[in-house]
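Standup notes
- DV: blocked on the single-chain target, sequence here:
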Amino acid sequence: MTEIEDKKFNISCIIAAYNEESRINRVLDVVIGHKLLDEVIVVNDGSTDKTESLLQAKSGLKLISYPKNRGKTHAIMVGLKEARNNLVLLIDADLANLNQSNITALIEPVINNQADVTLSTRANSLFIFKWLGLDYVSGERAFNKEIIGDFNKLDELPRYGFESFMNEAIIQKKLRIKVVNWPNVIHTIKAAKIGFWAGWISEFKMLFQIISLMSLTGMVSQFWNMLKLKVPDA
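- DV (later): unblocked, structure below
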């Protein structure tokens, strides 16, 4: 155990889940009981598989569930509103090979005041993101939820608009970004979840929603503006 893990911090972990019955347990086994987290919130976003019953049987978490799938952005909004702490950690429900050291590494720069926001770079992040040193659409982030402002504005966004919205807040506030490399962690792509064609159609729908929110030019501008806010490695 590191010195920082021996201290008490008020940090809420929020996980949005939709049809993750075969994957979410491996994430929960890492975050539940982690020394830096005192609350784990899972928002079951209208799953139609056994995700809800699995979560109901799991101890050590706060479950919020609703019957209709509303999308990741809405689920995160619900989790942020429910979180009792200002410091929050967002973790995707479909990660593979995640371990407690990954969680510690993502939290440490924020609680040590080395950065205002941390973002992960996973083993299967896009090559260009790894090459340039910033996966700006990463779903794994640690930050103070006050960054978001009015949570209700999130419900005005597309289903996959949260990261882009938060990125704009980071840029406007000129917040320090620390990129944390997770060379062991893999994000499960949709094609592996729901089949090749359905998965890639879903991926393109997600990309289209992001483009419709801010345009291709806006996406490139956002990336470079965030890159300028990146805290250099020690």
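- Follow-up: The longest strand covers residues 11-17.
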